[in-house]
Amino acid sequence: MGLHKGNTAQYELRDGSKIAVLGGGPTGSFFSIFALKMAKMMGKEINVTIYEPKDFTKDGPGGCNRCGGIISELLLQTIAVEGITLPDRVVRKGIHSYKLHTNHGTVFIATPAFEKTIATVYRGGGPKGMAGGETESFDNFLLSRAAAEGAIHVPLRIERVESRGKPVLFSQNKEVMEADLVAGCFGVNSTTGKIFEEMGIGYKQPSTSTAAIAELAMTEEAITECFGNSIHLFLIPDKDIKFAAMIPKGQFVTLCILGEDLSPSIVREFLERTLVKSVLPSSYSIECSCLPRMNSGAARRPFADRVVICGDAGSTRLFKDGLGGAYLMGKAAAKAAVFQGVGEADFRREYYPVYKSIIYDNLYGSFLYAVIGQYRRWKYLTKAMIEVVRKEQRDTDNTEKILSNILWDMFTGNERYKNVFLKSLKVRMHIDMWEGLFKSLLRRDDAER
Amino acid sequence: MLKGELGRNYTDGEIIFREGEKGEVMYAIQSGKVKITRVTSSGETTIATLQPGDIFGEMALFDRLPRSANAVALGDARVLSIDKKKLFTTINRDPTLVFKILEAMSHRIRSLNEELAKLRDAKAKVVKVCPDMKATCGMILDQAKEFVKAENGSLMLLDDREKKLVIMAAFGSDRVEKAHLSEGYGIAGDVLKTGMAELINCVSSDRRFVRSPIEIGSMLCIPLKCDQHIQGVINMSHSSENHFSLEDLSIMNSLAFYASLALQNAKNFASLRKATDGVLIHATLLNEYAAEVD
Ligand SMILES: Cc1cc2nc3c(=O)[nH]c(=O)nc-3n(C[C@H](O)[C@H](O)[C@H](O)COP(=O)(O)OP(=O)(O)OC[C@H]3O[C@@H](n4cnc5c(N)ncnc54)[C@H](O)[C@@H]3O)c2cc1C
């Protein structure tokens, strides 16, 4: 592997070609669904086997690929057009708005007509004791869709991949398959990346940071009263925390804290803050918490002859809409394999541009988060921002609502970062911001006097 | 209980979009059903009935013309809207996104083609000027039998003078039923009054149902309308419940349109013949009288 350059017939998928998918999370399932769909369109009968040891119907950490579980508006709409509509049993709550909390005020941004365009889901069976019943996890739903397209799910963990012209997969020290293509969709929360690094194809795992997740149990009435159909975001001046979100789901609220290498005590510390307490009901309990790894940079060389690596194991959208990234990359890799071939050159031509576009877009993202970081840190900037958004929300004739839209797109992952950046260049917004800043400074002067 | 969450709720009969409106979004059905209707000179016609997972409203996005039909919630429905600008930006990045839309459109064109071919055939057979009313009714019912699978069927016409429905043609157990129903009596009588086609999935629980020795689980009852004048009804029934589909209802509605024309033709022809016969008799009598006088 890694020896052949250029597209030759040997890299074309044919009837009977075998694809091994390592990991049945969203990326693995999206890859499999599209590879099978597209192969059918081309009149090819390929075999797709998904290796995934987790049982996504199980409750507790064993069945869960830990994440906030927000399905962005963009992803929901796109997969609906693809014919994948999320059934009610998968959606834990429909979201129509965001509430942004800062130490200097709160703003509320909603969709037009309060249409619930964002979904919250569980990736596994949910917190302990929740399994069964009428609900289904997002990962299980997607894996079942892949199986319905014809993929075979094998509940094994792959421990070694050897290159013998074609990749050969091993589990429990036994050879399980010689594949025409291996799709590495193993995320960043296992040691599998090492297996691929050791293959000598030049792959280098992405950089990661630690995030924190906790499930807060409370009554449904409390959730309706305190959260409604809104995701609550916290922008607070804390050097460790970039931002935090509380995501309502049935009888639980998922707390997600993103920052730089967080420690286990972060959840309790966060919940002790006055601002946070003012949002929560008086009675709730922490059902579980974890510190998953989060992709924070792109992997090097995510493809070679007969190998493609996608989803979190490659690159993903910075801080947002990782599941949207899983869809984009899973589909792009499937398209390359079916329509072009499984050689390095095929992936370079068809897959790499999508991969790179995510990396470039994240550069705009980093810049925007840096700006938001400043807003978070400087009281008067925070106040000015709140002032402008409030004004935009009050003004029903103002259809542009630039800053509200920017914040919405940033936090919902609804728009590429580049487009958000371009929106932020609009002069009107800057005039409003200066006006807001001026007003909050004036108020300070008044107060001081 | 699971509460439906995503999208926007529409109650039964609520309009999602109207014919002639500008189309800025397309839709995906999350739950419930949506019917696509058009208003024609003979009333509202349902073109399609869509199910969860189906997409609709995409035509106006692609041809940039006003909406070509109405979309109405059939029962409570929940629908997710998909913004045109975002959709096209995504398609621009990944043109394979239109595969599914193309597939849905091809499906629709294919079933329209099939329906059109069937109707052309039916029209050719049925709209022939046929002088005999009973023969015309028989022909219409034969055609209906080809369109939907039913165990029993009948075509009843309204006797304007007696205000009664009279069976003109029948098959299956309906053949032995010699009932003459009064207007407004039973399901058929009701359809005659309202002029609305009905699909009844469970006949026994319909309070208008008039008990009969024949075992009927489900039925279709379609009015025969011509220029808003209702001439009669076609009944198709089956012993099992939930036997007929909304597609059956739709194709029978289309057939009923041509059938009404054919019946009107037959009626016109019959009265024309009566009139000519009258004239002929008069002429003969006059002739004879003239001969006698001579
Ligand atoms: C704190 C946090 C919050 C987040 N919140 C959101 C959010 O709200 N919305 C959003 O869109 N994204 C969110 N993300 C990002 C999102 O979780 C990821 O982008 C997404 O899970 C990536 O999917 P994946 O399939 O690539 O990887 P994963 O979901 O990690 O799945 C990888 C799968 O591979 C399997 N696997 C690993 N090794 C092997 C092996 N050797 N053999 C077989 N199988 C193997 C694992 O069991 C696992 O099931 C969040 C991430 C974090 C850390």
Structure, explained:
The complex is a heterodimer of chains A (449) and B (294). Chain A starts with 17 loop residues before the first strand and ends with a helix. Chain A has 14 helices and 21 strands. Chain A is α+β, with helices and mostly antiparallel strands and 449 residues long. Chain A has helices spanning 26-41, 73-81, 138-149, 192-197, 220-226, 266-271, 274-279, 322-340, 344-350, 352-377, 379-394, 402-412, 417-424, 427-448, and strands at 18-22, 47-51, 70-71, 93-95, 97-102, 105-110, 118-120, 152-154, 160-164, 166-171, 174-178, 181-184, 208-210, 212-217, 230-234, 241-249, 252-259, 285-290, 293-295, 303-304, 307-309. A 7-stranded mixed β-sheet of chain A has the order 6-5-15-16-17-14-18. A 6-stranded mixed β-sheet of chain A has the order 8-2-1-12-21-20, covered by helices on one side. Chain A has a 3-stranded antiparallel β-sheet with strand order 3-7-4. Chain A folds into 3 domains: 9-69 and 135-207 and 296-362, FAD/NAD(P)-binding domain; 208-294, Alpha-Beta Plaits; 374-448, no CATH class. With 294 residues, chain B is an alpha+beta fold. Chain B has 6 helices and 12 strands. In chain B, the strands form 2 sheets. In chain B, strands 1, 2, 3, 4, 5 and 6 form a 6-stranded antiparallel β-sheet that branches. In chain B, strand 7 and strand 8 (164-171) form a beta hairpin. The mean pLDDT of chain B is 83. The complex binds flavin-adenine dinucleotide. The site of flavin-adenine dinucleotide has 39 residues of chain A, from helix 1 and helix 8.
Topology:
The complex is a heterodimer of chains A (449) and B (294).
Chain A: E1 18-22, H1 26-41, E2 47-51, E3 70-71, H2 73-81, E4 93-95, E5 97-102, E6 105-110, E7 118-120, H3 138-149, E8 152-154, E9 160-164, E10 166-171, E11 174-178, E12 181-184, H4 192-197, E13 208-210, E14 212-217, H5 220-226, E15 230-234, E16 241-249, E17 252-259, H6 266-271, H7 274-279, E18 285-290, E19 293-295, E20 303-304, E21 307-309, H8 322-340, H9 344-350, H10 352-377, H11 379-394, H12 402-412, H13 417-424, H14 427-448
Parallel strand pairs in A: 1-2, 1-12, 2-8, 5-15, 12-21
Antiparallel strand pairs in A: 3-7, 4-7, 5-6, 9-10, 10-11, 13-19, 14-17, 14-18, 15-16, 16-17, 20-21
Chain B: E1 8-10, E2 15-17, E3 25-40, E4 43-50, E5 55-56, H1 59-63, E6 70-83, H2 84-93, H3 98-126, H4 133-147, E7 152-159, E8 164-171, E9 180-182, H5 186-194, E10 198-200, E11 218-226, E12 229-238, H6 246-293
Antiparallel strand pairs in B: 1-6, 2-6, 3-4, 3-5, 3-6, 7-8, 7-12, 8-9, 10-11, 11-12
The complex binds flavin-adenine dinucleotide.
